[in-house]
Amino acid sequence: MRILGIVCLLPLVVGGCATPPAEEQVALIERSQLFGNPSRFQGRLSPDGTLMSFRAPLDGVMNIWVAPVGDFEAAKPVTRDTGRGVPSHFWALDSVHLLYIQDRDGDENWHMYRVNVGTGEMADLTPYDGVRAVNLGQSERHPGKIVIGMNDRDPRWHDAYLVDLASAERTLLAENEGFISLLVDNNLEVRGALAPTDEGGATVLRRSGDEWLPVLDIPVEDYRTSSVLGFDADNKHIYMLDSRNRDKAALVRVDFATGKTRPIAHSDQADIGSVLMDPRTHKPVAVGVRVHELKWTALDPAFEADFAALAEQAIGDAEILATTLDASRWIIYQSRADGSPVYAVYDRSTRALDTMFVTNPDLEGLPLSPAHNVTIPSRDGLDLVSYLTVPRGVQVDAEGMPSQPGPMVLLVHGGPWARDMAGYSGEVQFLANRGYAVLQVNYRGSSGFGKAFINAGDKQWAANMHNDLVDAVAWAVDAGVADPDSVAIMGTSYGGYATLVGLTFTPELFACGVDVVGPSNLETLIASIPPYWTSFVRSLINALGDPDTEEGLALLKDRSPVNRVDQIRRPLLIGQGANDPRVKQAESDQIVEAMQASNIPVTYALYPDEGHGFQKPENTISFYALADGFLSQCLGGRHQPIGDDLQGSSLQVLEGVEGVPGLAEALEAAERR
């Protein structure tokens, strides 16, 4: 987890701002503090409540540790990975085994492993090359079993297998006949499926012998805001998040035989995004809705006092990650912008929220910046839920607005069907610590705000989606936040694409850009999707354009930054993982080659052992060492010299070493080590 501090603004390259008095200066925070491994992360309780697990460094690599609840002195590692680390883990419902996923250098062909916490015995449950494992379900009624989707028969489709955790033996439950996903009930039987429609929607099907019978249709306009959550206790109904016949996704209960739908909870403000289910009764007991912050509402009166107690004690957003099988204790992830995230345990018997651990205690006392909620109007009347972070040391009013404009980074989230949130972001704090205001905008196409808002992004890449970002910059300038000559754009995945769009479609607006794994050519993006995205192709085409039609192909060409390289006027830094299966290395290669052909400077950093973004802390630290100096040249903020921060990384600078101060010397020093 990354955590950062904040710096006062320094004189700008273009425009200006007075250097604050020395006593107001905020110390630079080391990149290793911001982007290194947390001390502990991803805390969990075993389903029976006797053990706790978490990820923590072992010889500098994140591994899984287990201990009796609350006894950190007795914690022992149960994995011993020496590579990129274990990215995620969860408990089997038998409380005997832990399960975790791992790929190879970012290729996203996830294998699922299990480890017996008593004996330490490990096994790869999906030991097949090129296979991507998907967890389809567990049940307390069948301890020691799990249903896993595997695409070894056909790389496009995940068949369902019942896997015995002790022996690692698998038994085929159902072949996937072209479905988006298979639905498993509480008896671990394949009872249904989600089938894609030609238009880009889906049909929920139920299995009857060898037949698949329709239960209900999810129209294309509801596809991104509707989903199946699971079966109720008697396996006769399913719970869904459902936006059909409404704008905001509601929680509903559907008769699986007839499709008759009964609404349970909804909000007029935003989609229901979180649902707490009782793990034994399989009934929803609370829902969470997020506009700026996450707000919980109890559905069962027996839980009302619990959520009142949680709201009173929690600091920042309180996400409920898991519960014990008896629902007596909940794992809570607390996150606020200006502090280290905290894992805590809520005990229903005492209504007390007790800290499990702080993810990075070294951040205590560092000058982190709070985020301020803002809502920015788009030019066509949409409300853009956004967050503004102002560097410490800069005077602000009661609404968090600075007393004078300064440099700003527009930090664009990926997806685009995702969203920015109010909690802690290491990247945001890094930028603020260096002296930049940070603006995060939930542009149209972002998730959580209803189907009209998310669908408003269709065919609007580099058009109205970009206009939302342009409008946000105009708002920041008008509000006195940003110096119009000192605004950078930065982002990962779709955010990287938005960066390339910013420098090619609005070449005078931004002072520079930082793109991480951003697509540059929408034609090649669609043409190179991995096989297991086959059922997702129509949705992607609906969003971007159809390459098989003359009109759609023209749209893809027009909205591709690689075709407008000659418009670039400002510095660009690109970071790419060589094994990225979603936005392949060719996306970065081709725009760099086009810039080279036009003699336009660019700095290109490639990581051979990374995929869609950076997982190894050594690589993350090294890339932000580049971004640190790059942005200081562009925006005039302070920066930490590169020093030894390339050590241990796989960084290859394929172009533009001169674009980052001190990079040539740092690379030479790294080679000598």
Automatic annotation (TrEMBL):
Keywords: Hydrolase. It comes from Halioglobus japonicus. GO terms for molecular function: serine-type endopeptidase activity. Residues 424-637 form the Peptidase S9 prolyl oligopeptidase catalytic domain. It comes from the Bacteria. Pfam families: Peptidase_S9 (PF00326). This is S9 family peptidase. GO terms for biological process: proteolysis.
